[in-house]
Write a structure and sequence with these properties.
heterodimer; A: 6 strands; B: alpha+beta; about 25% helix; about 35% strand; elongated
Chain lengths: ~150, ~140
């Protein structure tokens, strides 16, 4: 079984189901990081700073993109084996902060597939926009799919 | 919380950001799994972790990245001032099953002043001797 389907590169996955960002979800996520910024936790503080509602921590997009990564991996045609996938890199470019009340969708593109020393490096780009088309964040995830014969040291 | 937020005119290349130290216990991993939706058993089930060749349960890489972002918010005061943020996951944080867990230290410094009131920051994350994040950097926009 191949580690990855090389023809995966360039594939675009259709927009995900709309995700409504909840105030309590942002608070729950912030608490899980130990984030204490009032802008992430208190509506009044966020509004005083000019935001419509509490602001999501910088890595909150993972709540949306993780589902997409799982979707790509579970695509039988991807050739990917979840048990061999390691998260290599993550990068975000922010257009507008995600706030509670945003309804978001992700369009995912497989940006590249490379094989380095028997490991496959799969780079996914998720464009996160509101359902009315306002860009929020571009998320780039690089996954390392370890070679099947690799023995852990 | 910061009492005096940085401004573009006042920061200098080489300025050190206040560091953040985090204790990561098994309960923190379970909490993050629920908050993020990442229920991969290598982050909570020692039997599974050792079966795939890990020494023990490891923290989510995205939890480490998220805790690193606290260096940014503590300094900036505003999570919305972050323009770019990226990391490479270089070493796992092994989390023992005890009260203390693992201790991770996050730091940052000003690497460059860019146009448009933006600065580039270099971030660090260490657990014992191990660098857990590599090439960790952010671009943030500061008030004038």
């Amino acid at each position: 079984m191949p580690t990855v389907n090389p023809n995966l590169a360039g594939r675009v996955y259709p927009a995900s189901q709309p995700y409504l960002v909840g105030r309590e979800k942002i608070r729950e996520f912030a608490h899980a990081l130990g984030e204490t910024s009032p802008l992430c936790l208190q509506v009044e503080a966020a509004r005083a700073a000019g935001y419509p509602d509490v602001v999501a921590p910088a890595t909150f997009p993972t709540v949306l993109t993780l589902r997409i990564v799982q979707q790509v991996i579970s695509d039988p045609d991807s050739g990917l084996d979840w048990d061999r996938v390691v998260h290599g890199e993550e990068k975000y470019a922010y257009h507008q902060p995600i706030c509670a009340g945003d309804e978001l969708q992700v369009i995912t593109t497989v940006e590249s597939v490379r094989v380095v020393a028997g490991n496959a490096l799969v780079t996914l780009r998720g464009q996160i926009c509101t359902t009315d088309g306002q860009p929020r964040v571009s998320a780039t995830s690089m996954l390392v799919v370890r070679a099947p014969q690799e023995v852990t040291a | 919380m910061t009492t005096s937020s940085p401004t573009y005119s006042s920061v200098k290349v080489g300025d050190i950001l206040p560091s953040v130290q985090a204790q990561v216990c098994r309960a923190d991993l379970v909490r993050y799994a629920g908050a993020s939706g990442d229920f991969n058993p290598i982050h909570w089930n020692p039997r599974h972790a050792t079966a795939v060749g890990l020494p023990d349960v490891i923290a989510h890489g995205m939890l480490s990245m998220g805790m690193a972002s606290r260096v940014l918010t503590a300094w900036l005061g505003d999570p919305g001032a972050i323009v770019e943020f990226g990391v490479r996951f270089t070493n796992p944080v092994v989390v023992p099953d005890d009260e203390q867990g693992a201790t991770v230290t996050f730091g940052g410094s000003v690497a460059a002043k860019l146009d448009d009131q933006q600065v580039r920051l270099t971030l660090t994350a260490t657990c014992g001797e191990a660098k857990i994040l590599g090439a960790a950097k952010a671009i943030v926009r500061l008030p004038a």
